[in-house]
Amino acid sequence: MSERPAHSARSPKRCPDPDSSLLPREVARELHVCMGLNSCAGLDASGQAPMAGMGTCATVFHVCHGEGACRGQGGCGYAGTDYEQFHPGEQDCRYNGSCASPINESRVFSAGPLKGKSVWKQARRLFEARMYAAGKAFGPAPGEGVEDDRMPHYDYMSQPQ
Amino acid sequence: MTTKESVQEITDLQDLIDHLKAAAQVELSTVPLYLYATYSIKTRGYSQWAAGASAQRTMIGVAIEEMLHLSLVRNLLIAVGDTSFRLYDPKVIPTYPGVMLKREPKLPMRLRKLSTDQVRNTFMQIELPATPPGAALGEIEPYHSLGEFYARIERGIHNLSSTIDWAKAKKDLWKFQYHRAYWNQNGGSDQPRLIVDEASAIQAMQIIVDQGEGAPEDKGLLPDPIVRTDDHPPQDIGKWQASHYTKFSDIAKGLDGIGVVCDDTGKQKYTIDDAEVIWPVLDDPDLKTVKADQTVKDLMEFSNAVYCYVLALLDAIYRTPMQVHDPAQDKDLFTQSDRYAYERGFIAVMQGLLYPVCELLVRTPLVKGQLSVNAGPPFQYYAFKTKQPKAELAALCEELLPSYAALGGDDGVQRQISLLPDIQLP
């Protein structure tokens, strides 16, 4: 019998399909770590989000703790200090981020005040707080993170030599 | 019958496989002990003024490294051709109280709250540096330290290397090994590694020994990542780690502690023996004999089911091959991968299910209104009634919601179960 994982009903939309026109632009106009975190219309991976908060995927991909090359790129949840882990997508400086981007939907914090709780949900909470602070409208997110069975390039395996 | 002859050598492949299966059981048996003690810590956070490091984070780091050691042993089992080993097996899952497998003298293994006694007399004894070998007994002869045991395996790998099909390991079997999905903020930088030849096999065994009990003459500090060297402590500042034995020794001495301070001198207000900071969890919880409210027993049984799902998911990972992809030839952002979903799910179930359920247990008195003894996770075998453990977890959680509302909600255990991979038991 197949062991194919069931997908969550909480994520009605998947990250962009490979051959669609929704692939990231060569140079992202904004850096964010998952779906539903774009701060303005058209600044998401596809460039087609109708408004803030409705983007379908991350615009930055990196594999681990401290690898984000700019502020706000930390995914959080797998490693990092208590403080770092509380701020997914909201680090103040490059290399201060904690963990891979994009955020997968089952990822939870391994430490800090939200240990055991959803990373994406906290990233979205922080995003929404920024939007309220800026006085901007935003729309519903298309999901709560990338499905766990969607493997990004940085985790591809090659034959051992 | 006991003989006092020379130390046993591993002479054939089956003997090596038997030793590796025993090693996997030994590594697995340490994880619940360390987690149980860690869960018993009440406090969160750590004062910036406190001397030393957080005992809680140190303990978590050690537990994760034991999981690393388990993965290295199992990767080697795969590499030498054994794909039959399963963790979700009543004969493999350790029971508590028990004794450390095949160790002489006998070392009691007990689930107990964190205390100086537990650290000194159990944890430090588990990671005790090597002593001279002595008696021999049984099919797998006993050992006196894990270092001695793994040294025997190292010699076995070397002596049998010409009979091990390393080419098959490099061509096919590596795909079944555990390689990705490992993070440890509180430990060394060593990671699960693919084992495809004698050199990688020996290196894996050295990581296990040195991270645990330390290297000979290491003076408490080891290179990070692990390499065998005479340069102790390593001169490359910032590239060192302490062995588990040293870390536990620091906790027992109070150097690494709870993190609540008296003032800004760094003196810690509480030790790990103070009731203010440690939950009064019972010793060696056993679902068959524990005297507790029925709802508490049900929660303990749920924790057993979650623990066994973790082990079954690991088994699913080890029987599902990784795929080979070349990013340069792939224009997709992502590739669909069941194996990848299992790996993500494995991390998520430990952090998002096992932890919150255990954390709820240690805060819960065995009998309502009696605050002297709290519950704890028994880490016992749970027999799933069907081949669909995820569905059973969901049903168990649903039944517990009227008594434990914290399991539900928008960001609780119930949601996390819905995101688990729907593995099938063999």
UniProtKB/TrEMBL annotation, chain A:
Stretch list, region Disordered: 1-22, 142-161
Name the record gives this protein: Uncharacterized protein
Source organism: Streptomyces albospinus
TrEMBL record, chain B:
InterPro entries the UniProt entry points to: Ferritin-like, VioB/RebD_dom
Superkingdom, taxonomy of origin: Bacteria
Name of the protein: Iminophenyl-pyruvate dimer synthase domain-containing protein
Pfam family membership, one: Ferritin-like
Signal sequence interval, chain numbering: none
Domain Iminophenyl-pyruvate dimer synthase: 20-252
